[in-house]
Design brief:
The complex is a heterodimer of chains A (222) and B (255). Chain A is mostly helical and 222 residues long. Chain A has one domain. Chain A contains 9 helices and no strands. Chain B is α+β, with helices and mostly antiparallel strands and 255 residues long. Chain B has 2 domains: 109 residues, Beta-grasp domain (Ubiquitin-like (UB roll), Roll), CATH 3.10.20; 116 residues, Orthogonal Bundle (Fumarate Reductase Iron-sulfur Protein, Chain B, domain 2). Chain B contains 8 helices and 7 strands; from the N terminus they run ββαβββββααααααα. Chain B has a 5-stranded mixed β-sheet. In chain B, a hairpin with a 2-residue loop joins strand 3 and strand 4. In chain B, helix 2 runs antiparallel to helix 6, helix 5 runs antiparallel to helix 6 and helix 6 packs across helix 8. Chain B is elongated. The chains are: A mainly alpha (222), B alpha+beta (255). Chains A and B meet through helix 1, helix 2, helix 4 and helix 8 of A and helix 6, helix 7 and helix 8 of B.
């Protein structure tokens, strides 16, 4: 325990945990996206998929608690690291130039992360908590999801969340590999490219769902 | 690239003036002429000579070898540590990199761990203490051993040499949006981690140096890689990945 505490007292140690929790959450996002793809088939397909998850019973509960823990640890560490860095330069430059290596995505990790946090609260309250409470509005979950993400406000919130996710992942994936020391000069550039490609695919994948529903006339108005 | 060697540049210089660590500083504006053939520090020398002639206080700034190898010069020039040229220290920067009529902003490196002592001089002793925490090999001196007694792969020798090119100027800290000292510490960990001479103290070095870096109040690494772009010696952020690896390994293996 002493070694673990010592490890977590340094930013390098905390970043390692940040990277591992981040990569785990990325894994969850991929699975979530694949689940959402059932909507390309029908709302019933999504309901069937959701029912299969519900049928897992206690395993689902353990998974949900695990996910929540990952989110809380990831966000807590990110905020604590951010505070450390804010304190590391109390008196900022009067004239500041970019050296040209940082990106919009890398500079906005805190903002996109916080935006994702807000999005998650809305998302989980809307669907998961209502489902657990037995709210009749989400009795037909697939239909509730379709109505929500194709309504004007819902679509804006959804796309906003997805763009935040895409920007976050664009920097996060290659950053996690670097933090874990899994970066080698021979493949570092490919890791960076793959990171950008993954972020783009995830963003397009999520964004495609409401757009597909709207273009095929299965939107909220139906 | 700016003017020709026969032109004179008329510059507006905004130079940071601060009497001590606990006082507030501000920019002082001077209009000066400079030859494009001057180095940046020679240009500041002329500014100071003029100030002294007028009976005013010259600007304090760090410098020593003036040939780009000692790591003493610093300065953030127009928002960039060591100025606009890549892989060039302030002392090796020449006024031909500027244009006639330019406005130049000159500030000290800024980080809580690098307090301003006076004007443009900062205290970089935190970097020395990081070295003291493990950036060395403990060897008994004696007769030099045979050159090939310790086989070292060429690739490792090259990478260690690249890491050892770090002159410890602190530009990485200055450029980092988080004021992190990761590139400096990583270069110093790497140069020994890559060589057999560094092996006996491998774990204690990684732990000691990272922990000292934290204790000095530097920020954390968010992998912007701005440090690498600012580094006058072109130290690669691959070294940071290596240090992360070394630190993780040492945390698991150390007793």
């Amino acid at each position: 325990m002493h070694a673990l505490r010592r490890f977590l007292e340094t930013s390098v140690g905390r970043k390692t945990v940040l990277a591992i929790t981040g990569l785990s959450l990325f894994g969850f996002v991929v699975v979530h996206l694949l689940g959402n793809f059932t909507l390309f088939s029908s709302t019933e397909a999504l309901n069937e998929y959701a029912q299969k998850l519900e049928d897992l019973g206690p395993i689902l509960m353990v998974a949900e608690v695990g996910l929540l823990t990952l989110f809380v640890v990831h966000m807590g560490l990110a905020l604590s690291l951010h505070r450390q860095s804010r304190e590391a330069r109390p008196d900022d430059y009067r004239v500041r130039a970019n050296m040209g290596r940082s990106t919009v995505a890398s500079r906005s990790m805190l903002i996109t992360g916080l935006a994702l946090g807000v999005f998650l609260v809305i998302h989980i309250t809307d669907f998961r908590i209502k489902k657990i409470m037995g709210d009749p509005a989400v009795a037909d979950l697939g239909q509730a999801v379709v109505e929500r993400i194709t309504s004007p406000l819902g679509l804006v919130i959804y796309l906003g969340g997805i763009i935040a996710l895409g920007l976050h992942l664009r920097h996060a994936l290659q950053s996690a590999f670097q933090t874990l020391g899994l970066s080698h000069p021979r493949c570092a550039d490919n890791v960076r490219r793959a990171s950008v490609a993954c972020a783009a695919l995830i963003t397009l994948g999520f964004a495609a769902i409401p757009l597909y529903l709207l273009f095929t006339g299965q939107g909220a108005s139906s | 690239m700016g003017g020709h060697s026969d032109e004179t540049l008329t510059l507006t210089l905004n130079i940071w003036r601060q009497s001590g660590p606990d006082t507030a500083g501000e920019f002082e504006t001077h209009s000066r002429e400079a030859s494009p053939a001057m180095s940046f520090l020679e240009m500041l020398d002329v500014v100071n000579e003029n100030l002294q002639r007028e009976g005013r206080e010259p600007f304090a700034f760090d410098h020593d070898c003036r040939e780009g190898i000692c790591g003493m010069c610093s300065l953030v020039i127009n928002g960039k540590p060591h100025g606009p040229e890549s892989e060039t220290t302030t002392c090796q920067l020449h006024m031909r990199s500027f244009n006639d009529g330019d406005v130049i902003w000159i500030e000290p490196f800024r980080a809580k761990a690098f307090p301003v002592l006076r004007d443009l001089i900062i205290d970089r002793s935190p970097l020395d203490r990081i070295i003291q925490a493990g950036g060395y090999v403990s060897v008994n001196t004696g007769a030099p051993q045979d050159a090939n007694a310790l086989p070292i792969p060429k690739q490792n020798a090259d990478l260690a040499m690249d890491a050892a090119a770090c002159i410890g100027c602190g530009a990485c800290v200055a450029a980092c949006p988080n004021a992190a000292a990761m590139l400096f510490t990583a270069a110093k960990v790497s140069q020994l981690a890559l060589l057999p001479q560094g092996a006996p103290e491998r774990e204690s070095r990684a732990l000691g140096m990272v922990e000292q870096m934290e204790a000095e109040g530097f920020g954390h690494c968010t992998n912007h890689y701005e440090c690498m772009a600012a580094c006058p010696k072109g130290i690669s952020t691959d070294n940071i990945a290596r240090m992360n690896r070394e630190y993780l390994r040492a945390s698991i293996l150390s007793r």
